[in-house]
Amino acid sequence: MKLIESVKEFGGYLNRYTHYSVACQSEMTFSMYLPPQAAHSNVPALYWLSGLTCTDDNFRVKAGAQRYAAEHGIALIIPDTSPRGDSVPDAPEHYDLGQGAGFYVNAVQPPWDKHFRMYDYVVEELPHLVEMHLPLIPGVKSISGHSMGGHGALIAALKNPGAYRSVSAFAPICHPLNAAWGKGCFTAYLGENAALWQAYDATCLVQAGAHLPEILIDQGTADEFLVDGQLQPEAFQAACLQAEQPLSLRMQDGYDHSYHFIATFIGEHIAWHAKALR
Ligand SMILES: N[C@@H](CCC(=O)N[C@@H](CSC=O)C(=O)NCC(=O)O)C(=O)O
Fold first, then answer.
1. I need a surface site. Which of 24, 34, 83, 263 has the fewest CB within 10 A?
2. Which residue lies with its CA nearest to atom 12 of ligand 1?
């Protein structure tokens, strides 16, 4: 693991690292905010998964989360959204496939299957790596994300009960097997295997019996992708109701899909995770 950038912010450090990923068979970049408390003791971690077209940079620059992470003594761990580089397959004409669009699944279809294993990377490899090298409390972690990353956060938690203390999401893709972005990526990465699609779909996971403590979701009512049917929080809400899965779905009046929306509510999400991480 190589530290390539470090800047002091709110008494802590916003760092960027590169390392070789065994899961993705390539160099990966991630960012991490270490709060001031980490200078004296190990701290809990909140993983943030970003959306389509993002790198590790979008969240750290646009969300304003570091102030709240410093306040609560929580580290932020911000992976990239896919492997990258000349040897990694891409679909440059599509913003919603390939590099920048890993969809947090383990691909099984060529040419994606060698490198696009973001599920294993985020759920297994990255936590193992950062807990080994950085001042974190082993196993004390929560997860959140936006859009494609909200989908990633929901499935990571639903598929691994007990692994995360809490999960929240901003405008998540709740039912990808029934939405254009999800269908495109699942077809490319997973092929035609319906069981595999369901295994990476938050709504199907709840329908199949996955159960967690309360899930927090914020969704803007003026979100262009909500209107397009890409997100489908109503399908997830119905599944949660049916399965008695506690869900706080907050429809936020007038907010769109952007980081302005995330920046507005990220402080509330971090405070909510902090309670679970205590
Ligand atoms: N119109 C955009 C589409 C990409 C986009 O909106 N990406 C969102 C996430 S959408 C779901 O995962 C995002 O977070 N963008 C980065 C940002 O900093 O806002 C396009 O064509 O790029």
1. 263
2. 51
pLDDT tens for residues 80-94?
999 999 999 999 999
72, 151, 175, 257: the catalytic one is 257
Catalytic annotation present for 256: no
Looking from the CA of residue 258, the nearest atom of ligand 1 is 19
ipTM: 0.95
- Residue whose pair of structure tokens reads 């699942």 in the numeric block: 186
Q: Count how many Cα atoms sit within 13 Å of the Cα of residue 158 in the half-sphere of its side chain.
A: 28
Q: Please state the atom number of ligand 1 nearest to the C-alpha of residue 101.
A: 12
Annotation says 223 is catalytic: yes
Q: Ligand 1 centroid to 53 CA: how many Å?
A: 6
* Alpha carbons 119 and 110: distance in angstroms, whole number: 17
The pLDDT of residue 9:
98
Task: Note the pTM of the prediction, 2 decimals.
Answer: 0.98
Distance CA 19, CA 212 (A): 32
| 141 and 123 Cβ atoms separated by less than 8 Å | no
Q: How many CB atoms lie within 10 A of CB 180?
A: 13
Name residues of the chain where pLDDT drops below 70.
none
Residues 6+ apart with CB under 8 A from 227: none
Nearest Cα residue to 48 out of 27, 74, 22: 74
Dist. CA 114–CA 92, nearest whole Å? 18
136 forms beta bridges with 43
